[in-house]
């Protein structure tokens, strides 16, 4: 028998009631020559082979951090065995904790913003394994209320490079003349052979600049790198003035752009609004330098209206590819770290209620409600995840040899909503600055305790400002609902709290703070300078200590009698007086109360001279004694009845001495040992 190019398939059959594994050989390429009329079955083994276990990691999930940072992994549909959960996310990991990784059902806690993948591996009693994975999509907040979903590309359903549409479109405009239709009404523009791509398995869109374009300049177009995703038709991307739109983008950068981008040479736009007049995008969340003097690379808000004819102006004085640039967050924060960007916009002329704002991970970082919003009203359109290499400085579009240089902006999720005109308009939030407060000096600080509510959304930010009163006050945390105010002086203050909801509407409330002067009393103060004192030289100092009633603002000690002395602390209630000599002194204390009343008292100090009178001391050697050598040869000398002083015992016997020893001759009481008869 001759066989080539076959496929080998297991089929379970029963032969003589014995379970056997049989290989069936199917013809694939060439003629299968067999001797029998029917396909032969070859029984290769009578050993039973166990079926592999079933692993089912459960459905994909989406959670919102405004509600929870925990998800449940449910592998209960898997077959029995041992279980092992693990995270298999690409580019970056969540850092979350799998509570019970060896249980079929467990929780994952501490999930941040991003898209994460978790794998369940099941091992049966025979050692066979099976695996299945599921996705947890973590957004900061839920979709906007009362909104119509206009577009939401499903990367898992898109072909990475399918449907090449027009190989001659903008040749050498630097995406090498390649545009691709992809599902859900978008086209993908690829900057280079390895440019934009779609990761179907993990549901991500990579907007990539890579070298090796080999693009030749023409009289019409100067080549530069460009990759982005654009709606195919204006049926979904045109913005109608007066209608509110919401754009949600979630993603990250695969490289640290802070180390590879040069402001003015490369440009990255998470989202941009385009006018039909051919000028620069009037609105975008994009890359730029922090300021005109600081080249640190930031993502931020850019408005580019030529000469600022929309009434925006340039309040911060930083110009970068437009007339209005506000840095928001360093690009390094996006390096393998996903973030949520929400842009809410209603185009219109000045004073028509037009506005736009930008939220970064749920916090409003930019909002404008004045001036015109939009450029060619009724014709403006958007695109997103754009990468431009203006000067071929990051990569070389003119070189056909790739060097491996690459930069990718990764989009995990993009949604385009329109708020329906038939639904209730966004309601402004309500601010509550708290109750009015009154304090009395010397207390000079208060706590502002405000709050905000929003009936049809959520509060995105708080802002405290002082609207009236002395300029001495300092608000410690202006963006917190509760904040301490210090440095208050006498007067009346007003502080205003502004709350902003998730769609940019605001509400305000004010609170008054009254600061009264230090409390005063009509009761006069009193003072007692202390008792008279007498000392004797050589002691030549005393302590004066006064007792008062009432609130005292000042003390003043003075000497009005006696020789010159020194008052060490004349403005304190208690002081020492030094350098006193023999004589009589008078010290006067005047105290002043906080209510302006005064009180006076005095104290005398008498200093006596050195005492020169002497008195003859008393010496008492104690009574005579008799001892018996049959009992002892020691006697005790007791001079304790003598007056104080120094002592000296000595033997004054006549004719002969005892030769005994006086143990402590300089003590009032001592012993004499070794006495002989005599």
Description:
The structure is a single chain. With 678 residues, this protein is an all-beta fold. Helix content is 1%, strand content 43%. The chain contains one helix and 47 strands. The strands form twelve sheets. Strands 11, 14, 15, 17, 22, 23, 24 and 26 form an eight-stranded antiparallel sheet that branches. Strand 12 and strand 13 form a beta hairpin. The longest helix has 4 residues. It starts with 6 loop residues before the first strand and ends in a 5-residue tail after the last strand.
- Report the strand count: 47
The average pLDDT value, as a whole number, equals 77
In one word, what is the shape? Answer: elongated
- End-to-end C-alpha gap: 151 Å
> What's the story with the biggest beta sheet?
8 strands, antiparallel
Structural class: mainly beta
Strand content: 35-45%
Rg over C-alpha atoms, rounded to the nearest angstrom: 48 Å
| Uncertain spans | 1-48, 161-186, 213-222, 306-322
- Count of DSSP-assigned helices: 1
How much helicity do the residues have?
Answer: under 10%
List keywords for this structure.
disordered N terminus, 678 residues, 1 helix, 1% helix, 43% strand, 8-stranded antiparallel β-sheet, mainly beta
Nutshell version of this structure?
With 678 residues, the chain is mostly beta strands.
Helix-strand blueprint:
Elements: E1 7-15, E2 18-26, E3 42-45, E4 61-64, E5 71-74, E6 82-87, E7 97-98, E8 105-109, E9 114-123, E10 129-139, E11 147-151, E12 179-182, E13 186-189, E14 197-199, E15 204-210, E16 225-231, H1 234-237, E17 244-253, E18 266-274, E19 283-289, E20 297-303, E21 324-330, E22 339-346, E23 355-360, E24 363-368, E25 381-389, E26 406-419, E27 430-432, E28 437-440, E29 446-449, E30 451-453, E31 459-468, E32 474-475, E33 482-486, E34 491-501, E35 506-516, E36 526-528, E37 533-536, E38 542-545, E39 547-549, E40 552-561, E41 566-567, E42 574-578, E43 583-593, E44 598-608, E45 635-638, E46 661-662, E47 669-673
Parallel strand pairs: 4-10, 28-35, 37-44
Antiparallel strand pairs: 1-2, 2-3, 5-8, 6-9, 7-8, 9-10, 11-26, 12-13, 13-16, 14-15, 15-26, 16-25, 17-22, 17-26, 18-19, 18-25, 19-20, 20-21, 22-23, 23-24, 27-30, 29-33, 31-34, 32-33, 34-35, 36-39, 38-42, 40-43, 41-42, 43-44, 45-47, 46-47
